[in-house]
Amino acid sequence: QVHLVESGGGPVQAGGSLRLSCLASGRTLSRYVIGWFRQAPEQEREFVAQVTWSGLPTFYSDSVKGRFTIARDNTKNTVYLQMTSLKPEDTAVYYCAARETDSTLFTFWGQGTQVTVSS
């Protein structure tokens, strides 16, 4: 079992930056890949980025590549999503999720944190 809690969302103006945090707890976190997803109103949930607990490799969606950075701090059991050059279309509820390294299915999810980017 992995328990995930997101924080750091809020309102921000276009062009601004925000850092989301995902605090993870549970056994053998090193076995898990942590991902960030987002869901805008009336849209499908979409993948944003992921990182292994060792820190590499990382993957990003094309829509955020070059603007968002995913990183982890093992001493704090926390995965961060640094978001820069934010656009109104980045507005969504952001979720972190976990999957075992040998699985393709993210099975543990946090409650989400709202990010609202105004133009």
Strand fraction equals over 45%
Quaternary form: single chain
Number of strands: 11
Model regions low in confidence, pLDDT < 50 over at least 5 residues: none
Biggest sheet descriptor:
7 strands, mixed
Number of DSSP helical runs: 0
Radius of gyration: 13 Å
Shape label: globular
Q: Distance N terminus to C terminus?
A: 40 Å
Mean pLDDT: 95
Structural class: mainly beta
Can you give the helix content as a percent range? under 10%
Order of helices and strands: EEEEEEEEEEE
Q: If you had to describe this structure to a student in words, what would you say it looks like?
A:
It contains no helices and eleven strands. By secondary structure, it is mainly beta. Strands 2, 4, 5, 6, 9, 10 and 11 form a seven-stranded mixed beta sheet that branches. A four-stranded antiparallel beta sheet has the order 1-3-8-7, with no helix packed on it. A hairpin with a 4-residue loop joins strand 7 and strand 8. The model has no long low-confidence stretch (mean pLDDT 95).
Write a compact overview of the structure shown.
β5 (46-52) and β6 form a beta hairpin. The strands form two sheets. Strands 2, 4, 5, 6, 9, 10 and 11 form a seven-stranded mixed β-sheet that branches. A four-stranded antiparallel β-sheet has the order 1-3-8-7, with no helix packed on it. The protein has 119 residues and is mainly β.
What labels describe this entry?
mainly beta, seven-stranded mixed β-sheet, 55% strand, 119 residues, four-stranded antiparallel β-sheet
Set out the fold topology.
Blueprint: E1 2-7, E2 10-13, E3 18-26, E4 32-39, E5 46-52, E6 58-60, E7 68-73, E8 78-83, E9 92-100, E10 108-109, E11 113-118
Parallel strand pairs: 2-11
Antiparallel strand pairs: 1-3, 3-8, 4-5, 4-9, 5-6, 7-8, 9-10, 9-11
